[in-house]
Amino acid sequence: MADLCALADGTLPVGRRAEVEARIAASPELQELLERQRAAVLATQPIAAEEPPTSLRMAVDAQRSALGSRRRRGREAWTRFALAGAAAVAAVIVAAVVLTGGPGGPSVADAARLGTQSPTAPAPPPAGTAGTRLGISVQGVAFPDFAQFAGWHATGLLYGKIDGRDAIAVFYRKDGKRIAYVIVAGSELAEPSGAQSTTRRGVGYRTLQVNGRPAVTWRRDGHTCVLIGQAPPAELVRLASWPLTLPR
Asked: What's the pLDDT at 248?
């Protein structure tokens, strides 16, 4: 993380750049963090460029005049003070963006990681006889029943919190492999950068790697959904895009 921050603000030593850039290029999650970090650095530039208030300048000038021969040292002290203040503000903003996920709040990676945990409750039953959805939803957005469509059977679920938001992960199994379907309550999460995009019937699906596992994210009815697990990205996209609108 320290190297990533240094790369964002241009202070990373030349000898470290190739290794750090290679690691970031291989991780969409790190690419997203780098973009946030760079945005934070840009946000602090106007702060560093602002002129101090006139009253403060006048007070400092008066003090420097009284010091006589120490005037030059006073000017240097003022410069160090101004730079230190700008650096402190920059550090606070950069730290806030890195630790909280920036203005967009929680990330898709946070939602995907919920699907890497273990279920703590039994699988929800099917809803109705159509065989298209399960009897559980997040703010009206239902989970699909993949059993008849693709042979993935629901095996459990997990309730979680992502930066204060409710989220549910439903787990499915097929041939000894597991995937998880996550729906996050509240507004849509920011889409990850560096992910591969696929469009089906006007809906955009973005594939990425989270903790070494393939995942796909998209939006349904204003909510962020994620599929992650032991299935090829193409299979995850196929599952995510069926059906686009579930009966309720």
From this structure: 40
Tell whether 60 is covered by a domain.
yes
* Average pLDDT score over residue span 36-40: 73
Q: Are residues 138 and 218 in the same domain?
A: yes
Q: Name the pLDDT band for 35 (thresholds 50, 70, 90).
A: confident
Do residues 172 and 178 lie in contact, with contact meaning Cβ atoms separated by under 8 Å?
A: yes
Sheet strand arrangement including 177-184:
153-162, 165-174, 177-184, 223-229, 213-220, 203-210, 196-200
Residue 245 lies in a domain: no
Q: Are residues 137 and 232 in the same domain?
A: yes
At residue 204, the pLDDT reads 92
Residue 200's pLDDT band, with cuts at 50, 70 and 90, is confident
What does the angle CA 185 – CA 190 – CA 193 come to, to the nearest 5 degrees? 140
- Mean pLDDT, residues 176-191 taken together: 92
Burial state string for 83-117 with b = 16 or more CB within 10 A and e = fewer than 16: eeebeeebeebbeebbeebbebbbbbbbbbbbbbe
How much is the pTM? 0.59
Instruction: Report the distance separating Cα 221 and Cα 230, nearest Å.
Output: 26
Task: For 112-160, give the DSSP string.
Answer: HHHTTS---BPPPPB-SSSSSEEEEEETTEEEE--HHHHSPEEEEEEEE
Domain identity same for 90 and 47: yes
The label of the residue with tokens 């199994």 reads: 173
Q: Which two tokens stand for residue 101?
A: 């996920």
Give the structural domain span for 81: 2-100
